[in-house]
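Hey, can you fold this?
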Amino acid sequence: MINMENKDKKIRIVSFQNAHNFGAVCQAYGLQQTLLGLGYKDVLFINYNPQYLKDRYNPLNTWQNLNLNTSFLRKISRVLRWCSFVLTTWMRNRRIEQSIKRMLRQTPHELMSAEEVANEETDILICGSDQIWNTALTSSLDPVFFGQAKPESYEKLLSYAPSTEISALREDTIRLIAEYLKSFSAVSVREESVKNKLQPFVSFPMEVTVDPTILCGQTAYDKIASNRIVKKPYICVYAYTPDEELVRDIIRTIPNYTQYEVHYILFSATNLSQWGDKSVHSAISVEEFLSYIKYASYVVTNSFHGLAFSLLFEKNFNVTWINNKSTRTEALLQKLHLNSRMVKDAEKANWTNVDYQQVNKSLDEIRKESIDFLLNSIND
């Protein structure tokens, strides 16, 4: 139960909500909507968007990777491909930025530094979710994502389901994280493996909480998903490399697969050869991304959020295995007793109907534990 004294507190969140990535925006929306649904009124993301994160999505920064030390015709070809990449990336960025404005509540001004973040009026600061503690994305540990802009000024400082790659947790990194966590009143992470790495260095118990997309539930995303885009029955593929052999082979195991169109959602911009291909989608809004999964007959994915929305929209799905990238998806499938949906060999793909009555029961239990963590952490 919400403590009525806290319902008007200024709750602020630091996350990757400005990333030009469907999952990043959706997880931010999920945490925001959950807090609003619990009765907290003043919930905003701190509009922290440092240059190193902006640079990740600036296609012009790829110019230095354009090797023109070749024949004239190949130079022309590479420049054309690069121009295509820049244009489609700009279009994609634009569509996602428009979704961010529609979906998320943020502080009014973009902030670029810890000093600017420190000036934001904040009673309770929540760090999370997403991979905000992953040094592969932040170059080094960014103190802002550990509430270190002005930790002594917060009534409560807590983390909700931040994540990182286990390979990024070297001992020196862990010790610095442990030092930062001394300022926290409560800490949760998204994966058991991350907790196991950090817990020996932390003096208080850490918890594992579910990704905000799962926490928020289907109804919130139903409200914002675009109307059905593809009229015919179709298979939705949302994968890091959608043309890889395993993905192609799994599609062929779908019953009567030739009767379905196949639509591919890309993680990045389309290349020149994909221009005009109506089955390939990159420059789409977040709401359209949700629609492609929501109305699919089958889903093939290896993305954590591809899995999350397959579950929320009760899809028949399989997840393809990727070395060093499947930890989060595998952990969630194990919790839901859906291990058979993680596929390393296409011949073992499982296309029997998922028992969503049992899955939803398990998801409700997971949600309750995570809601309890949020309420207890804010109210105590």
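Oh, and this one too while you're at it.
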Amino acid sequence: MPIELAKIEELAPDQASLSAAAKLKKPGPWSLLGCDDAAGLIWGECQGSGSSPYRVICSEADYGTKCTCPSRKFPCKHALALMWMRADRVSFTPGPFPDWVGDWLARRRPGAAAPKKAAEKEKASAANIEAAEPAVEDPKAAARAAAQRERNRAEREAAILAGLDELDTWISDALQAGLASFLPAAAERCRKIVQRLVDAKAPGLAGMVERLPADVLSAPEPARTDRLIERLAQLHLVSSAYRRQDRLPEPVKADIRQLVGWPVTREALLADADALRVRDRWMVVSTIAEVQADKLRRTETWLSRLGEGAPRFAVLIDFAPVSLGKVGATYSIGEVFEAELVYFRSPAPLRAIIAEQTGPTVAGGPWPRPSDDVAGAVARLNETLAARPWSGEMPFAAHGARIVASGASLWLTDAAGATGLPVRADEDDLALPLTGFDSIDVFGRWDGHVLSLGLAETPLGRWTAA
């Protein structure tokens, strides 16, 4: 699919980058403009302030880019200009990609086969070596490194358990002092235990506590005490589960450890033979971008599987420093791509990474009609909570739904109005046009209290929350 100007504008980290790119979107500064349509790659060399030109690469499949310039913005003005020229149909010379493009392609696809050119060079070099001496690993050094890793792991386990003891004491003190006195000082009380959990190397739990005041205060005032009890109980549940992790099934244990803060790297997940892998076509049904308190931008891309089978949904979660602007692949609601996804271990698999994307990202047609009606979709939510009671937002998909007004609020119901879920209050104005339809197919995210709408297929076309 050709690169579109609207997508370039969406990817740009700021208006200044777009303005700078506009000055470069002509062949003059470029000594090389090449493309490989079969591989979905474009590349170029752009003269900068130095003696050597900057080398720029873009993958048209997922808008991944690379530039050798020193800019801290991503994509930089050179990458934006390269894509812009492609969108403007500037002439690119077709042909095999250079070695430096192949090197980038191999690095960004862990486990993928090396490009043909690189493989041929490696083979030719090997043919000229009569006898290659194998690298000899020092067993003592390997043993020392393994022992150090084990000590580090044991020290972190001890630190986390000490942090959990302090968390339990903090929860107990809050209950004994009375929740009415806790609410007015919630932010200050949470700040202290958050820092202690960070020091205890349990950043996942620290994040849960850090979000507690905003979550509780976002509830209607009469419901705030109940919401606080719920969040404290959830923290206690995770703490108790972590202490008993050796008695838990492996998917639950892995999920709890990740929730507390043990990292799972991309490389480790791809190497996990027991991780769930699904290759299919996926449609983007919801996107979220928010800046966290730690100055990281959190981007969530929710996907709906277009083929048959389970799981039906996946969420991609990416983090990047705010200072870098928009980074990585950016998807829009309604786009479709084919890919193999690898899911993190969980009793209710949802979070995943893209192991390999096959072909370009394209504009999709209508979202396929969900198999569940509203009551069936609610039942699936309950099944997910039973398997993973610490779940955050969960996917909700139903056909034959209605959006109805009840006082000042909107609700999603079935045709008879027998089953309903409240729509997130700050989305009421956006979702108000949906009240005119008797039946819609809808995707949303349920957080246990309110439904955030992502996409709806209506008789007049698609509605999105973006």
